[in-house]
Amino acid sequence: MLSNWQAVAYNQATDSDNRIHSDDVAKQYGFRGGLVPGVTVYAYLVHPAIASWGMNWLESGTASVVLRKPLYDGAKFEVRVTPDGSDAYRGEVVDADGILCADGTVVASVSAGPLPTLRGDPGVAPIDEIPRASRAVLEALRESGLGSVRVEWPGRTEYDRYTRSLSDMPDLVRPDRGGYANPGFTLGLANWALSRNVKLGPWIHVQSDVRNLGAIPAGSQLITEARITDLFERGGHEFVDLEVAAFLAPNEPVLAVNHRAIYQLRPA
Length: 268
What we know:
Structural class: alpha+beta
């Protein structure tokens, strides 16, 4: 049965290359501290779906999320669920001060529909050869294409969990129980599709539409392909829209995402 969920936010990315998750840099941009990653907040929003629908949601569920305000490490929050029938809900992530940090719609399962196919994009360039992100560079990559990214689950990354204590996660997605990839990790593939192709300064994930196509078991080799669909400026920020697909090697689709991020923040 769908129910609200309360927990304590966990910023597992304090040492990541994206320094918006560090206190010192985030404060330069007017935040109280390092931001909990957007993919982690997304995992909080869909936690009730995993707890209620289990494998059904991991294999064929969908979710749309908009990140509205920052959530900070150690902050108490609540996921408020408003059911829409027996197989969908409207969710809100609200902090202890009543601030709406994220909201969206989550659906238990959808019919198959068209599936992404592996194009066979070449792999990303070595880290020391990728260009620094700019509008001109991303426009060029929009034309030439992004390099594909290969990772393993579990890869012993900070995104193998979305709560500080694994006991707060459903067994189905706990790495210490041999669980399937959790939603913070899977949506993180869309972030890596961008950050492995260009060198970024502080940047922020702001919105995603996610379609699950299969659960990702332990030991999986994953291939992520992406393309840039839009670039625009709003309020002094530079945005990028991506269309991302992830596959179990050699070519089984497991995830399709439309992903939006601010790749260049307006000056601090």
